[in-house]
Design a protein that fits this description.
The protein is an alpha+beta fold. It folds into two domains: 11-109, no CATH class; 118-312, no CATH class. 39% of the residues lie in helices and 9% in strands. The protein is built from 15 helices and five strands. It has helices spanning 10-35, 38-41, 49-52, 56-60, 62-65, 90-97, 107-110, 124-132, 137-145, 151-157, 160-163, 193-200, 219-227, 312-338, 340-348, and strands at residues 170-179, 188-190, 234-242, 272-277, 283-287. Strands 1, 2, 3, 4 and 5 form a five-stranded mixed beta sheet that branches. Strand 1 (170-179) and strand 2 form a beta hairpin. The longest helix is centred in the C-terminal third of the chain and has 27 residues, at 312-338. It is elongated, with a radius of gyration of 28 Å.
Protein backbone atom coordinates (compact mmCIF):
# COMPACT_ATOMS: atom_id res chain seq x y z
CA UNK A 1 0.00 0.00 0.00
CA UNK A 2 1.32 3.41 -1.01
CA UNK A 3 0.80 6.20 1.48
CA UNK A 4 0.96 9.70 0.01
CA UNK A 5 2.91 12.19 2.10
CA UNK A 6 3.16 15.90 1.50
CA UNK A 7 6.75 17.10 0.94
CA UNK A 8 8.36 18.12 4.20
CA UNK A 9 9.08 21.60 2.91
CA UNK A 10 5.50 22.35 1.86
CA UNK A 11 4.28 23.61 5.27
CA UNK A 12 7.36 25.83 5.49
CA UNK A 13 6.76 27.15 1.97
CA UNK A 14 3.14 27.94 2.78
CA UNK A 15 4.21 29.65 6.00
CA UNK A 16 6.72 31.84 4.18
CA UNK A 17 4.34 32.60 1.31
CA UNK A 18 1.15 33.41 3.17
CA UNK A 19 1.55 33.59 6.95
CA UNK A 20 4.55 35.91 7.27
CA UNK A 21 3.27 38.49 4.73
CA UNK A 22 -0.16 38.43 6.39
CA UNK A 23 1.37 39.05 9.82
CA UNK A 24 3.59 41.78 8.37
CA UNK A 25 0.67 43.56 6.71
CA UNK A 26 -1.34 43.36 9.94
CA UNK A 27 1.61 44.94 11.79
CA UNK A 28 1.89 47.59 9.10
CA UNK A 29 -1.72 48.59 9.70
CA UNK A 30 -0.89 49.44 13.30
CA UNK A 31 1.90 51.77 12.15
CA UNK A 32 -0.19 53.35 9.41
CA UNK A 33 -2.88 54.39 11.88
CA UNK A 34 -0.59 57.33 12.57
CA UNK A 35 1.83 57.37 9.66
CA UNK A 36 -0.88 57.66 7.00
CA UNK A 37 -1.98 60.94 8.61
CA UNK A 38 0.23 63.97 7.93
CA UNK A 39 -1.46 65.88 10.76
CA UNK A 40 -0.33 63.20 13.22
CA UNK A 41 3.29 62.67 12.13
CA UNK A 42 4.05 65.51 9.72
CA UNK A 43 4.42 65.33 5.95
CA UNK A 44 8.02 64.08 6.20
CA UNK A 45 6.98 60.89 7.96
CA UNK A 46 3.65 60.39 6.21
CA UNK A 47 3.33 57.14 4.24
CA UNK A 48 0.69 56.62 1.59
CA UNK A 49 -0.74 53.24 2.51
CA UNK A 50 -2.14 52.58 -0.97
CA UNK A 51 1.32 52.96 -2.47
CA UNK A 52 3.26 51.23 0.30
CA UNK A 53 0.99 48.19 0.42
CA UNK A 54 1.90 47.34 -3.19
CA UNK A 55 5.66 47.39 -2.66
CA UNK A 56 7.89 44.43 -1.89
CA UNK A 57 8.94 46.07 1.37
CA UNK A 58 5.37 46.00 2.67
CA UNK A 59 5.46 42.19 2.69
CA UNK A 60 8.47 42.33 5.02
CA UNK A 61 6.73 44.52 7.55
CA UNK A 62 7.67 47.86 9.08
CA UNK A 63 9.53 46.35 12.04
CA UNK A 64 11.77 44.28 9.80
CA UNK A 65 13.50 47.53 8.83
CA UNK A 66 12.75 49.65 11.90
CA UNK A 67 13.90 47.16 14.52
CA UNK A 68 14.14 49.65 17.38
CA UNK A 69 10.41 50.39 17.31
CA UNK A 70 8.65 48.98 20.37
CA UNK A 71 5.02 48.59 21.34
CA UNK A 72 5.38 51.82 23.35
CA UNK A 73 6.39 53.87 20.30
CA UNK A 74 6.40 56.84 20.12
CA UNK A 75 5.98 57.34 23.83
CA UNK A 76 9.22 55.50 24.64
CA UNK A 77 11.28 58.32 23.12
CA UNK A 78 13.41 55.89 21.09
CA UNK A 79 14.12 57.11 17.55
CA UNK A 80 13.15 54.48 14.93
CA UNK A 81 16.18 52.80 13.42
CA UNK A 82 16.65 52.58 9.68
CA UNK A 83 17.55 49.40 7.87
CA UNK A 84 20.90 48.89 6.23
CA UNK A 85 19.88 48.17 2.64
CA UNK A 86 22.85 45.84 2.26
CA UNK A 87 21.20 43.39 4.64
CA UNK A 88 18.82 42.32 1.87
CA UNK A 89 20.39 43.80 -1.26
CA UNK A 90 23.93 42.54 -0.85
CA UNK A 91 24.62 41.87 -4.53
CA UNK A 92 23.24 45.26 -5.60
CA UNK A 93 25.24 47.01 -2.90
CA UNK A 94 28.44 45.34 -4.07
CA UNK A 95 27.71 46.36 -7.64
CA UNK A 96 26.89 49.92 -6.64
CA UNK A 97 30.07 50.18 -4.55
CA UNK A 98 32.08 49.83 -7.77
CA UNK A 99 30.30 52.74 -9.47
CA UNK A 100 31.25 56.42 -9.38
CA UNK A 101 27.92 57.25 -7.72
CA UNK A 102 28.71 55.50 -4.45
CA UNK A 103 30.87 58.38 -3.20
CA UNK A 104 28.10 60.92 -3.79
CA UNK A 105 24.76 59.25 -3.06
CA UNK A 106 23.33 56.75 -0.61
CA UNK A 107 20.55 54.31 -1.50
CA UNK A 108 17.91 56.56 0.08
CA UNK A 109 19.03 59.55 -1.99
CA UNK A 110 17.53 57.83 -5.03
CA UNK A 111 15.06 55.32 -3.58
CA UNK A 112 12.27 55.94 -1.12
CA UNK A 113 11.84 52.49 0.46
CA UNK A 114 8.14 53.17 1.01
CA UNK A 115 7.45 53.53 -2.73
CA UNK A 116 10.25 51.41 -4.23
CA UNK A 117 9.18 49.16 -7.11
CA UNK A 118 10.78 47.15 -9.86
CA UNK A 119 11.57 48.78 -13.25
CA UNK A 120 8.57 47.20 -15.01
CA UNK A 121 6.20 48.99 -12.60
CA UNK A 122 7.82 52.43 -12.99
CA UNK A 123 7.49 54.77 -15.96
CA UNK A 124 10.54 55.98 -17.85
CA UNK A 125 9.63 59.54 -16.86
CA UNK A 126 9.67 58.54 -13.17
CA UNK A 127 13.09 56.94 -13.65
CA UNK A 128 14.44 60.23 -14.99
CA UNK A 129 12.88 62.24 -12.18
CA UNK A 130 15.05 60.29 -9.74
CA UNK A 131 18.16 61.33 -11.66
CA UNK A 132 16.97 64.95 -11.94
CA UNK A 133 16.89 65.29 -8.16
CA UNK A 134 20.68 65.71 -8.43
CA UNK A 135 21.33 66.24 -12.14
CA UNK A 136 19.44 69.36 -13.27
CA UNK A 137 17.56 68.77 -16.52
CA UNK A 138 18.70 71.98 -18.21
CA UNK A 139 22.37 71.50 -17.35
CA UNK A 140 22.24 67.84 -18.41
CA UNK A 141 20.57 68.74 -21.70
CA UNK A 142 23.16 71.41 -22.48
CA UNK A 143 26.04 69.05 -21.76
CA UNK A 144 24.58 66.37 -24.04
CA UNK A 145 23.85 68.95 -26.75
CA UNK A 146 27.59 69.43 -27.22
CA UNK A 147 27.75 66.13 -29.09
CA UNK A 148 24.30 64.46 -29.22
CA UNK A 149 22.03 65.32 -32.21
CA UNK A 150 18.38 66.08 -31.38
CA UNK A 151 19.21 66.19 -27.69
CA UNK A 152 15.72 67.12 -26.50
CA UNK A 153 14.20 64.17 -28.33
CA UNK A 154 16.74 61.74 -26.90
CA UNK A 155 16.24 63.05 -23.38
CA UNK A 156 12.46 62.64 -23.71
CA UNK A 157 12.58 59.13 -25.16
CA UNK A 158 15.32 57.56 -23.05
CA UNK A 159 15.60 56.97 -19.32
CA UNK A 160 19.09 58.02 -18.24
CA UNK A 161 19.85 54.48 -17.03
CA UNK A 162 19.39 53.08 -20.55
CA UNK A 163 22.72 54.66 -21.47
CA UNK A 164 24.44 55.35 -18.17
CA UNK A 165 24.40 51.88 -16.65
CA UNK A 166 25.65 48.51 -17.81
CA UNK A 167 22.10 47.34 -18.68
CA UNK A 168 22.34 45.56 -22.00
CA UNK A 169 18.76 44.55 -22.82
CA UNK A 170 16.48 47.41 -23.78
CA UNK A 171 12.87 47.14 -24.91
CA UNK A 172 10.27 49.51 -26.34
CA UNK A 173 7.75 50.57 -23.69
CA UNK A 174 4.68 52.43 -24.96
CA UNK A 175 2.81 54.81 -22.68
CA UNK A 176 -0.56 56.44 -23.29
CA UNK A 177 0.02 60.16 -23.54
CA UNK A 178 -2.57 62.92 -23.49
CA UNK A 179 -2.13 65.68 -26.04
CA UNK A 180 -3.05 69.28 -25.43
CA UNK A 181 -4.82 71.39 -28.03
CA UNK A 182 -1.58 73.11 -29.02
CA UNK A 183 0.56 69.97 -29.50
CA UNK A 184 3.60 72.24 -29.11
CA UNK A 185 6.50 72.20 -26.68
CA UNK A 186 5.41 70.38 -23.55
CA UNK A 187 1.99 69.68 -25.02
CA UNK A 188 2.30 65.97 -24.25
CA UNK A 189 2.17 64.22 -20.90
CA UNK A 190 1.46 60.77 -19.55
CA UNK A 191 -2.24 60.13 -19.08
CA UNK A 192 -3.06 59.79 -15.38
CA UNK A 193 -5.01 57.00 -13.73
CA UNK A 194 -8.13 59.15 -13.10
CA UNK A 195 -8.16 60.23 -16.76
CA UNK A 196 -7.85 56.66 -18.02
CA UNK A 197 -10.46 55.43 -15.53
CA UNK A 198 -12.94 58.01 -16.78
CA UNK A 199 -12.32 57.00 -20.38
CA UNK A 200 -12.75 53.31 -19.52
CA UNK A 201 -16.34 54.05 -18.37
CA UNK A 202 -16.52 51.40 -15.68
CA UNK A 203 -14.38 48.81 -17.47
CA UNK A 204 -10.78 48.00 -16.67
CA UNK A 205 -8.25 50.53 -17.90
CA UNK A 206 -6.45 47.87 -19.89
CA UNK A 207 -9.61 47.40 -21.99
CA UNK A 208 -8.93 50.81 -23.58
CA UNK A 209 -6.28 49.10 -25.70
CA UNK A 210 -6.43 45.40 -24.80
CA UNK A 211 -10.00 45.10 -26.08
CA UNK A 212 -10.44 41.38 -25.48
CA UNK A 213 -8.64 41.67 -22.11
CA UNK A 214 -6.41 38.66 -22.68
CA UNK A 215 -3.32 40.43 -21.24
CA UNK A 216 -1.79 40.57 -24.71
CA UNK A 217 -1.96 43.46 -27.16
CA UNK A 218 -2.04 42.53 -30.82
CA UNK A 219 -1.12 44.72 -33.79
CA UNK A 220 -4.83 44.87 -34.63
CA UNK A 221 -5.62 46.26 -31.17
CA UNK A 222 -2.87 48.86 -31.55
CA UNK A 223 -4.35 49.99 -34.87
CA UNK A 224 -7.86 50.13 -33.41
CA UNK A 225 -6.68 52.27 -30.50
CA UNK A 226 -4.89 54.75 -32.74
CA UNK A 227 -7.68 54.98 -35.31
CA UNK A 228 -10.54 55.32 -32.80
CA UNK A 229 -12.01 58.88 -33.03
CA UNK A 230 -12.70 58.73 -29.28
CA UNK A 231 -8.95 58.59 -28.70
CA UNK A 232 -8.04 61.59 -30.84
CA UNK A 233 -6.34 63.28 -27.87
CA UNK A 234 -4.57 60.11 -26.80
CA UNK A 235 -1.51 58.63 -28.46
CA UNK A 236 1.11 56.00 -27.72
CA UNK A 237 4.56 57.37 -26.96
CA UNK A 238 7.47 54.94 -26.95
CA UNK A 239 10.54 54.96 -24.75
CA UNK A 240 13.58 52.69 -24.85
CA UNK A 241 13.69 51.27 -21.33
CA UNK A 242 16.09 48.76 -19.74
CA UNK A 243 14.62 45.32 -19.19
CA UNK A 244 17.05 44.48 -16.39
CA UNK A 245 18.32 47.38 -14.28
CA UNK A 246 21.85 47.37 -12.91
CA UNK A 247 23.46 49.71 -10.38
CA UNK A 248 26.75 49.73 -12.25
CA UNK A 249 26.60 53.41 -13.21
CA UNK A 250 28.95 54.03 -16.10
CA UNK A 251 28.77 54.71 -19.82
CA UNK A 252 29.79 51.64 -21.80
CA UNK A 253 31.67 52.14 -25.07
CA UNK A 254 28.76 50.82 -27.13
CA UNK A 255 26.53 53.66 -25.85
CA UNK A 256 28.61 56.09 -27.89
CA UNK A 257 27.79 54.05 -30.97
CA UNK A 258 24.46 55.13 -32.51
CA UNK A 259 23.86 51.60 -33.78
CA UNK A 260 23.34 50.40 -30.18
CA UNK A 261 19.79 51.71 -30.55
CA UNK A 262 19.53 52.57 -34.21
CA UNK A 263 20.28 49.05 -35.38
CA UNK A 264 19.08 47.84 -38.76
CA UNK A 265 17.27 44.61 -39.42
CA UNK A 266 13.71 43.40 -38.76
CA UNK A 267 14.66 41.86 -35.42
CA UNK A 268 16.03 45.05 -33.85
CA UNK A 269 14.09 46.49 -30.91
CA UNK A 270 11.01 44.42 -31.63
CA UNK A 271 10.17 43.47 -28.03
CA UNK A 272 7.44 45.89 -26.97
CA UNK A 273 5.10 46.50 -24.05
CA UNK A 274 2.27 48.88 -23.28
CA UNK A 275 2.45 50.35 -19.77
CA UNK A 276 -0.70 51.74 -18.12
CA UNK A 277 -1.00 53.93 -15.01
CA UNK A 278 -2.57 52.29 -11.96
CA UNK A 279 -4.31 53.79 -8.94
CA UNK A 280 -1.40 53.15 -6.58
CA UNK A 281 1.02 55.14 -8.74
CA UNK A 282 2.65 52.10 -10.35
CA UNK A 283 2.34 50.96 -13.95
CA UNK A 284 0.83 47.78 -15.37
CA UNK A 285 2.91 46.40 -18.23
CA UNK A 286 1.22 44.32 -20.94
CA UNK A 287 3.16 42.51 -23.66
CA UNK A 288 2.55 43.66 -27.24
CA UNK A 289 2.82 41.57 -30.37
CA UNK A 290 6.28 41.30 -31.90
CA UNK A 291 6.89 43.85 -34.60
CA UNK A 292 4.78 46.65 -33.13
CA UNK A 293 7.25 49.32 -34.22
CA UNK A 294 7.24 47.89 -37.74
CA UNK A 295 3.68 49.13 -38.11
CA UNK A 296 4.78 52.74 -38.04
CA UNK A 297 1.71 54.22 -39.75
CA UNK A 298 -1.04 52.60 -37.71
CA UNK A 299 0.41 50.64 -34.78
CA UNK A 300 2.88 53.18 -33.37
CA UNK A 301 2.45 56.41 -35.40
CA UNK A 302 4.03 58.52 -32.64
CA UNK A 303 7.17 56.40 -32.37
CA UNK A 304 9.78 56.19 -35.11
CA UNK A 305 13.38 55.23 -34.52
CA UNK A 306 15.76 55.56 -37.44
CA UNK A 307 17.36 52.25 -38.34
CA UNK A 308 15.00 50.09 -36.29
CA UNK A 309 11.47 51.08 -37.27
CA UNK A 310 10.13 49.52 -40.44
CA UNK A 311 6.87 49.90 -42.35
CA UNK A 312 5.90 47.72 -45.30
CA UNK A 313 3.58 50.46 -46.55
CA UNK A 314 6.36 53.05 -46.44
CA UNK A 315 8.71 50.58 -48.14
CA UNK A 316 6.26 50.21 -51.04
CA UNK A 317 5.71 53.97 -51.27
CA UNK A 318 9.46 54.51 -51.26
CA UNK A 319 9.98 51.99 -54.04
CA UNK A 320 7.25 53.67 -56.12
CA UNK A 321 8.88 57.06 -55.63
CA UNK A 322 12.30 55.69 -56.60
CA UNK A 323 10.84 53.89 -59.61
CA UNK A 324 8.95 57.01 -60.64
CA UNK A 325 12.08 59.10 -60.32
CA UNK A 326 13.95 56.67 -62.57
CA UNK A 327 11.30 56.69 -65.33
CA UNK A 328 12.25 60.06 -66.76
CA UNK A 329 16.06 59.69 -67.02
CA UNK A 330 15.93 56.03 -68.02
CA UNK A 331 13.07 56.56 -70.47
CA UNK A 332 14.73 59.62 -71.97
CA UNK A 333 18.07 57.84 -72.31
CA UNK A 334 16.44 54.77 -73.85
CA UNK A 335 14.49 56.90 -76.35
CA UNK A 336 17.62 58.75 -77.43
CA UNK A 337 19.47 55.46 -77.85
CA UNK A 338 16.70 54.00 -80.05
CA UNK A 339 16.49 57.12 -82.20
CA UNK A 340 20.22 57.76 -82.53
CA UNK A 341 20.37 56.60 -86.20
CA UNK A 342 17.60 58.99 -87.20
CA UNK A 343 19.48 61.85 -85.59
CA UNK A 344 22.75 60.84 -87.31
CA UNK A 345 20.95 60.66 -90.69
CA UNK A 346 19.50 64.14 -90.22
CA UNK A 347 22.93 65.52 -89.32
CA UNK A 348 24.44 64.07 -92.55
CA UNK A 349 21.78 65.80 -94.65
Amino acid sequence: MCIHREPAFLPILLFLTFVIPAVAIAGNADCLVCHADADAVGETFRIDHLTFDTTAHAALGCRECHTSVTTDHPGDGIAPSKADCRGCHEAISAEYARSTHQANADCRDCHNPHVARGPAAVSGADMNRQCESCHGRLDTTLRHAEWLPQTDLHMAMLPCISCHTASEENVITLYIIRRSDTLLGDGQRLATYPELKELAEGKSISSLIDRNEDDYISLTELRMFNSDPENRMLRLQGMITPEAVTHDFRTLDNRWDCSFCHASGPGARQTSYVSLAREDGSYLRIAAEKGAVLDALYGTPDFYMVGATRSKVLDVIGMVIIAGGMVMPVGHGTLRFLTRKNREHKEEE
